[in-house]
Amino acid sequence: MAPPSFRSFGLLLSILSGRGAAQSPVIPPHDLGCVHLPIIHSTNVNHFSEKRGVQLMLANRSDVAYYAQLSIGTPPQPVYVQLDTGSFELWVNPDCTRVSGSDQLFCERAGRYDSAKSTTVESLGTTKTLRYGIGSANISYVTDTITLAGSSAALQGVQFGVASTSEDTFSGILGIGYGSGIATRYLNFVDQLAAQNATKVKAYTLALGSKDAQEGVIVFGGVDTSKFGGPLTKLPVIPADLAPDKVPRFWVDMQSVAISPPNQASKPYAGSNMPVFLDSGSTMTLLPPNLTSAIAADFGVAGPDSNGFFRIDCAYTKMNGTVDFAFNGVTVKVPYKEMIREVSGATPACFLGITPSSSFTLLGDTFLRSAYAVFDFENNSIWMSQAANCGSTPAALTRSTDLSSIVGACTTTVSAASGGSASGIPGFASGSGGSGSTSGTAGGSQPVSAGVRNTERSGLLLLYVMAAVAVGTAVLG
């Protein structure tokens, strides 16, 4: 897990449950030289649950993660794994009996890999314990074939971990950060795609998709111009020796954060110029306490609750407004709806999707759902634009230099599902237009970690926060 990784912000969620494993997504054929996989939100009942309408009054931590399906072994065994740009290794088979409630139901539907049923598995005879803020996994390393859905290509001899035991973990993880010679001593998944010529360019593009869409796409070795609008802006990755935590992650320089309330001028925040890293394995965005408090104040909240969360009026989810993250040459506008964590139940509750942290600054899923990001390993760069959705056109890159001339096919618009204004809600000084959703039209080894767990009960509401904080530098493994 990416440290610090707010992997779960558990909440009372009504989900549809049933028997059987998750359904496999339908994937069109791949363009030669790239591999594209659907990113499935764990709330998507078309994949993770049969439609039997059983309401679970349970606090689950699996509801806000993003998954891709791999087929492992010979014959292939489908397994869903959580996508994590902030870690480096692939592992599977959490112990579902060590989690409870809807986490356990989700865990059981994500699929399992049985090495005894594969004719191509090789045991490496090495083990490791991966520790997280909440939970751990004891893994044994193996190599096996991984078949990519929608492609005739199969990656041979890919190294990954198989959990023998685990505590409080509800899914395997596909770490898609830096690999061989940087964060691991072996070729990780991204390395293998390039080494076995499944991709021509060592890069991938990430479009998580909005909360309403419940699906996105990751394209290894290519781009999908129907998932963003305008050009891609190149941002250099801060080298590990200059990064705040000295760990090789996707650190970039952020110039500012601003808020654009409905029908008001944009308001920038002082002290919001800082390095941040992009972490798809983190539900929340982490910013310094003073900055987080200033943003929360503009949502009408005087201060955090006893657990550090900023509870806000759910009316904001229907308002045209954005929180704007500016980098050198590009600004990503995050609609209020995407920035707010919504908790369903008899009495709905909403929380700001930013958590104060004095140790780390990261942009998690509450930011990434509104950004289209290219992770360019060849040039140690992130290419970024505003996310949108005007179709599906994944295509291979011939060379990484092509990224400078690619333009998104969507006309980005930021609009709320239903209108709204700041009238009657405190916390606004001045600001202009934003959105409730973004749409478009055609045109290795885990660093040592430590964690914290905060809970709050209000009726049937139970909130969990997990933080896995890296200590020191990455250890090759």
Automatic annotation (TrEMBL):
The active site is at D84, D279. One of its GO terms (biological process) is proteolysis. One of its GO terms (molecular function) is aspartic-type endopeptidase activity. Residues 66-385 form the Peptidase A1 domain. InterPro entries: Aspartic_peptidase_A1, PEPTIDASE_A1, Peptidase_aspartic_dom_sf, SAP-like. Keywords: Aspartyl protease, Disulfide bond, Hydrolase, Protease, Signal. PROSITE patterns: PEPTIDASE_A1. Residues 1-22 form the signal peptide. Disulfide bonds join C314-C350. Belongs to the peptidase A1 family. PANTHER family: ASPARTIC-TYPE ENDOPEPTIDASE, BETA-SITE APP-CLEAVING ENZYME, ISOFORM A-RELATED. This is Aspartic-type endopeptidase. It comes from Echria macrotheca.
